[in-house]
Amino acid sequence: MQKIKIGTLPIFCIIIIILINFPSSYSRVYLKNGESPQLLKEREVYWYWKGLGIKGRVIIYFSRHLNFLALHESEFLNLRTGFPVRTIDMMSAYESVLSDENFLWVTVEAGIARKLYHVIPERTLSERIEVARELRVFNVKQGEPWEVQGNIIKGHYRHTPRYVLTLKDLKKINEKVVLALHPSYFEFDETPEEVYNIFKKQKIQADSISFCISDGYNNSKAIERLLRLKWMIENIPFL
């Protein structure tokens, strides 16, 4: 194949080549110094990440739930009533209805996450796979196709890839990640030791770790396991 000499290309072609070869890494914001683990309410995690200035990151979230209840712009049309017609700041509108159920969706809308891993308990995987297969056609119409590959559910929201998987399928990620964990992940058979060992084996590196507890959540066994993992990460560091 004949090589193309840069000198023979128009300037706009050179610019396109540069943009293709240097993708959105400039929009990714990492923390120069890793933050100490935080204990927060679930919806507060969004404000914590935003306050740190995190952008365009890989987020791994451990929970029984996906916390991705998406809203549509049409639900905010009532904000445009009156004269003169106002332009809506959609992010402010989304943040005004921030909740435990939708905070990861708002995180994607804000550009904080560019890739999202939902790590769920083993016992809930088959139910998630069944739902993904049943809703595949419906979700394609909504712009969010789901695909089941083995024990991993793959999908996307807009241009953000999303993966629903269990701990054993979490592989090494070749960059620092943002970690958050909810005690509902530990409601069944999962243990903090298993999570810690996978982090260590896969050399997961994180510059932000959040431990989340929702209002009214009272599963003491799950909370105890979450706090034990927090203690392990703080006192036997590897990240």
Give me the count of strands: 8
- Uncertain runs are 14-26, 137-141
Rg computed from alpha carbons, rounded to a whole number of angstroms: 20 Å
Beta-strand residue fraction? 15-25%
What's a quick, concise take on this entry?
This protein is an alpha/beta fold. The chain contains eight helices and eight strands; from the N terminus they run αβαβααβααββββαβα. A hairpin with a 2-residue loop joins strand 5 (152-157) and strand 6.
Could you walk me through the main structural features you see in this protein, from its secondary elements to its overall organization?
- The chain has 239 residues and is α/β, with parallel strands linked by helices.
- Helix content is 32%, strand content 18%.
- It is built from eight helices and eight strands.
- Strands 1-8-7-2-3-6-5-4 form an eight-stranded mixed sheet, sandwiched between helices.
- A hairpin with a 2-residue loop joins strand 5 and strand 6.
- It is globular, with a radius of gyration of 20 Å.
How does the SSE layout of this entry go?
Layout: H1 11-21, E1 38-40, H2 44-52, E2 57-62, H3 90-96, H4 103-109, E3 113-119, H5 125-134, H6 136-141, E4 146-149, E5 152-157, E6 160-165, E7 177-181, H7 192-201, E8 206-212, H8 220-235
Parallel strand pairs: 1-8, 2-3, 2-7, 3-6, 7-8
Antiparallel strand pairs: 4-5, 5-6
Helix pairs in contact: 7-8
